[in-house]
Every structure is written in C-alpha cells, then in structure tokens.
Write a structure and sequence with these properties.
The chain is an alpha+beta fold. It is built from 10 helices and 10 strands. The strands form 2 sheets. Strands 4, 5, 6, 7, 8 and 10 form a 6-stranded mixed β-sheet that branches.
Amino acid sequence: MTQPTTIRRVPGPQPESAELLRSALTLAATGVPVLPLRAGKVPFGNCHQCAGNACGGRPNMKSAGPCQCPGVCHAWAAATTDPAVLTSPAWTAAWQRAAAVAYHPGGAGLTVVDLDDAAAIAWARTALPATRTVETTRGEHWIYRGTMASRNAVRPGVDLKSTMAYARYLGPGTSTMTALPDAVRALAVKERSPARPEPYSVAMPAGAGSRECPHRTPAYLARGIAMAEQRITTASSAVHATVYRTFLAVLSTHGRCGCLSDAHITRLFTAAQAKGESLRHCSDAWTNARTTLGL
C-alpha cells in the first residue's frame, strides 16, 4: 500500500510580521524611531555579545555607541529610523517573531501620558490639556510635543513615557497634538516623597559664610552661574554626568565663601530638571559634589 506523501512547508514571511514591518517603516519615514516587541509587549533580549552589557552598552543609555551590534539590542535604545537596519537580516528575524511595533517617544520629541484605566482617563480630562489620543487595550495614550524624563506610577494608573522608554504603537490617534504642558512635567516631581526637602533647603554647603569672599564683584558670581546654566542646558548626552561636573565646578569656586544663595542654587536645579533630571538626582549630585570637595 502506497504511503501518503508528506508535504513540507518552507517557512516564509508571515502576513502579520510583514504588516508590522510595513508599519515600522512608515513610522520611521516620519522620523519616529521604532523597534519590534515580543509577546507580552517586551523588547527582545540582548544578543550573546551584548549580554550583561559586555559590549560596553550605550553610555547612560542615551546614545547609540559604542555598541555596534546589528541586532535588536538594548531595549528602547535599539529604536531606529534607518530602513536598512529595520530590514537587515538580524532585524528581519526579529520581525518574524514580533508581536507589536514600539517606538521611542523621546527620540521623536514626544511624551506619552499612559492612562491605564477609566479612572485615570477621567482624571486626565479634568487635569490635563487636550491633545492627540490613542486608544489602548485598557485605556488611552495622550501624546504631547516635547520631551521629559520618563516616570512610572506618577499617580494611580498613570505612567510617563518619553526619554529612555518605549511605547507600543497603536495607530495615529485622533485630535491635534499640543505642546507638553507644565502640568505633565510637574507629575514627575510630585511622585517624589514629600519628606524629601526642596533642592535649596539641603543645597547650601556647610560652612557657608565662614570665610571672607575673595570675589571682587557680584558680576563674577553672576557670570559663573550663567555659564553653569548654559553648560547644563546645552548638554546633548550624558546629562547626569554633566550636571554633577557643573555642580562640582560651581561649588569648588563658590562653595566656601558664602556667595551662593538659595536663588543661585534653584537656578542650577531648574536647569538640570529642564533637561530631564529628577529632583532626587539633582539633590544627589549636589550632595556628592559637596562630599568630594569636603564641604
């Protein structure tokens, strides 16, 4: 009796993966960095060469080098707008196993307010200005123009996704996108423990005023603070390191003579927070700089 012939199918691109790649390429063409997500809305793990950050990683996860891995590594930092990368063999293999397209909001100059449930949406409609909205499985994404530090659980059911984060792409959304409001930026500060003191309340160096000021005019200090603000404001990468070095420079010059006032310190903290540094990071950087100088 003749045995039935078994037909073996050769694996090929699945319609779902092809559609995901098309969506990714369309987004990338508009300047939005994209990456594939696995089932469960999580990024692909680092390759063997990059496991445990053995490749050197991406400094502070804010830039693309020195890692030159061709694969989908380093989570959100893998997001790209380069179609040659998106269609490369390593990425094609990832798209075959992908379940969704994600994007890096901060890389596109955006901030996503992720509202996880009906209660969070109701709150946003009364607390935040209207902007572009995208429906999610359980809630909505409110998308604003502008970037800030990403924070999770800033209030019940609300996450902020911008720099150093990714968001799932669920469509273009509706309504007109508006500028990132102060009300959203303030959420990142409000999440901090109320027991943590304000920046200027802990920032004055020990022994302030205990020595005679060697500076000949107030203009010397004014120039120094202005230069420090500019150094922080113009930092394009390694912002946290830049903030620490700037604080160190200011304190080494003005930290022992009593020149620094609350207003000066607040200006420095404000410049750092405008670049995405949290209040906690600012306070820690200031404290570390004082400790280094023995203040």
